[in-house]
Amino acid sequence: MKKLAELRAKLADLKKQALAMLDKADAAGGFDQAAQDAYDAKKAEIEATQADIAAAERLLEERRAMDALPAAGENTVHDTDPAKTHGFKDIAEFASCVRQASRPGGQPDARLFGAPTDVHIGGAPSGEGYEVPPEYRNSIFEVVNKLDEFGPLVDEEPTAKREVKGLADETTPWGATGVQARWRGEGTKMEPSKLVTEPRTTVLHELYAFVLATEELLEDAPRLASRITNKAGQAIAWKKNSAMVYGTGVGQPLGWMNSKALVTIPKESGQVADTIVPENIIKMFSRLLTVPGDAPFWITNSDCLPSLMTMTIGDRPIWMPPNGLVDAPGGFILGRPVKLSEHAKTVGDKGDIQLVSPKGYYAARRENGPKFAQSMHLYFDYAIEAFRWTFRFGGQPHLSNPVSPANGSATKSHFIAVENRA
C-alpha cells in the first residue's frame, strides 16, 4: 500500500511537470525540437507510472481476495459488523496486522485500508498510523468508564473545543457584593446592585496511553487483547482521576487538593503522629459547603479504617458499617458514605481522609466519539511497535477560594482535608 501511495504521488508530480511544459510552449508559440523531445519523454514516463499503478492496484485486489480465505494458522476474520470491526476478529488481530505492516518491507493487511471513512494511513514519510476500528475504541474506553471513580459524580459537560470559557460568580446572599436584596421605606429610592463576575477558563489537556509491546507479546493474541483493553484503560482512568484530586493545573487539570478552594483543618494540639481523632472528623464536617442537590461523601485510604472503625463521640460510634448500599462499601461517617480509594493518602498524611461535595468540581471532556475520546489511533514506527490512545479532559473546582459564612469566621468549601500529622 505504501508503494501504491508513492506511485500515485509520483504520477501527480509528473503531470504537474508536463503541464508546466505545455504552459511554456503556449507562451513560446509552440514546441521547438528539444522541447518536443523532452515533452515526449515525460509523457512516456507518465504512461509507465500509470502502468505501475495499475499493476499495484491489481496486486492489492488479489490480496483482498486472498484475505477471504486465510491460510492455516493465520488470523481468521469474524466480520460480525463490518462497519465497526472492518473485518477484524478483535483488537489483538488488528494489532498483529499493524505490527506486520510496520516492519520494513512488511505487507499491510488489506483490511487496514478497506474502510475509506474510518481507517486511513497518514501522509508522513513513515505513515502516521492506522485508526482503530470503532468497535475496539468503544471496548477500550468502556474499561475507562467502569474504573472512573469521580468522573460520573462531578459537574462534567461535553465540549467540542479545546478550552471552555465562562464566568464565575462567587458572591453569597449575605455578602456585601453581588446581587443584593434591601428593605425600602415608602417613597425612598431603590439602590441598584449587580452581578460580580470574573472570567474562568478551563483548558482541555491531552491525556494519553503509550504502550510498547514486545514481539512475543504481539504474537500472543489473547494476552495482547487483555493488555491493550484492560491495562491501557486502567492507566488512563487512574491518571485522569488522580489529576482531579492532585492535579497541578499546569499541563493537566487542577485537582481540589492543590487548589485554593481547599479547606485544611489543623491537627489537634498534642495529636499523636499518624492518627485520626474525632475532633478532626467533626471539624471537617462543620466546614463543608454543599452544592444544592449534591451527595457529599468521604474519601479515605483503607489504612485509616482501624482508626475510623473504633472512633466514638461519647459512647456513639462515628463510623457505621455498610447496610447493603453499593455506593458505600466503606460504610458511613456521620451519615455520609465512605469511598475507599487508592487516591487517598496513607494515614497521617494530608489527604488520608477527604470530605467532598463532588458537584463543586467542574470538568470538561471532548464530546466527539466514545466518552473522553477525542481521537484514537494505533501508531507505529519502523523501530518499535508502539500503541497510543489520546483524548482531552480538563477540570478545576468551581470556587477559587473558600467562602466566608454569614456568621462566624470559619470559611467553608466543597473540599475539606486535615493537615499532615507527622
Task: Characterize this entry briefly.
The protein is an alpha+beta fold and 422 residues long. Helices cover 32% and strands 18% of the residues. The protein has a seven-stranded mixed sheet. Strands 1, 2, 5, 14, 15 and 16 form a six-stranded mixed sheet that branches.
What does this structure look like?
The chain is of the alpha+beta class and 422 residues long. Among the domains are: 52 residues; 119 residues. The protein contains 9 helices and 17 strands. It has a 7-stranded mixed β-sheet. Strands 1, 2, 5, 14, 15 and 16 form a 6-stranded mixed β-sheet that branches. A two-stranded antiparallel sheet has the order 3-4. α1 packs antiparallel against α2, α4 packs across α7 and α5 packs across α7. It is elongated. Pfam families: Phage_capsid.
Main beta sheet strand tally, sense and closure: 7 strands, mixed
User: Tally the helices: what do you get?
Assistant: 9
Mean pLDDT, all residues: 79
Radius of gyration (Å): 31 Å
The unreliable regions are 68-79, 114-127, 369-375, 379-384
Q: In one word, what is the shape?
A: elongated
Q: Look at the helices and sheets and give the structural class.
A: alpha+beta
Strand content: 15-25%
Helix content: 25-40%
Distance between the termini: 63 Å
- The spatial strand order of the largest sheet comes to 6-17-13-7-12-11-10
Order of helices and strands: HHHHEHEEEEHHEHEHEEEEEEEEEE
Number of strands: 17
SSE map:
Elements: H1 2-28, H2 33-67, H3 82-85, H4 91-102, E1 130-131, H5 134-146, E2 155-159, E3 163-168, E4 198-203, E5 205-212, H6 215-219, H7 221-246, E6 263-265, H8 278-286, E7 297-300, H9 305-309, E8 312-313, E9 316-317, E10 319-320, E11 332-333, E12 336-340, E13 353-356, E14 361-366, E15 375-378, E16 386-397, E17 415-418
Parallel strand pairs: 2-14, 6-17, 7-12
Antiparallel strand pairs: 1-15, 3-4, 5-16, 7-13, 8-9, 10-11, 11-12, 13-17, 14-16, 15-16
